[in-house]
C-alpha cells in the first residue's frame, strides 16, 4: 500500500509540474500576443506619421523608406511557439525601434513639423503606443521568467521536452536605447 501511495504521490507531483509548465507557456504566449497587438497598433500609426513628415523631410527619404521596410518586417506574422522565430521577430522590432528613435531626432530639426497639429497628435499617439508596448513587454518578460524557471528546474527539464515546450527569449532593450544620452546632442 505504501509503495502505491508513493507512486501516486510522484505521479501527482509530476502532473502538477507538467500543468504548471503548460500554464506558464500559455501565459507567455498570451503576453507575446499582447505585445503583438500593441506593435500592430504602433505599426498602423507609423505610415501616418511618415506621410505627415514626408512633406517636410524630402531629403530624409532614405530614412523614411528604411522605416517603412522595417515596419513591414516587424509586423509580419511568425510562429509564436518557435523560440527562433520569436527571437527573429524581437530583432526586427528592435531594428524598427532604433530607426524610429533616429527619426524622432530628425523631427526635432524641423520646427514647422514639430509644431504641425497633425504631427503633434500623431506623435502623442505614437508615444502612448510605446508606453503600452513597454507595459506589455514587462508582462511578457515576467511570464517568460516564470516559464523558463519552471522548465529549467528539475524535473521540469524532462517534462518540458516531453511536452514540447522550449525556453522563450526575453524582450531586451534595443542596443541604441542602452547607449548613454548626451544632452549636448539635442541642444
Keywords:
0% strand, 7 helices, 187 residues, mainly alpha
Give a short summary of the structure.
With 187 residues, this protein is mostly helical. Helices cover 78% and strands 0% of the residues. The longest helix is centred in the first third of the chain and has 53 residues, at 2-54.
Secondary-structure blueprint:
Blueprint: H1 2-54, H2 61-74, H3 83-107, H4 111-115, H5 117-152, H6 156-163, H7 175-178
Helix pairs in contact: 1-2, 1-5, 1-6, 2-3
Could you please describe the fold and organization of this structure?
Helices cover 78% and strands 0% of the residues. It has helices spanning 2-54, 61-74, 83-107, 111-115, 117-152, 156-163, 175-178. Helix 1 packs across helix 6. The mean pLDDT is 82.
Task: Using the alpha-carbon principal axes, give the shape.
Answer: elongated
Largest sheet: none
Going by helix content, strand content and strand pairing, the class is mainly alpha
* N-to-C SSE string, H for helix and E for strand: HHHHHHH
Helix content: over 70%
Low-confidence stretches: none
Beta content: under 5%
Number of discrete helical segments: 7
Rg from alpha-carbon coordinates: 22 Å
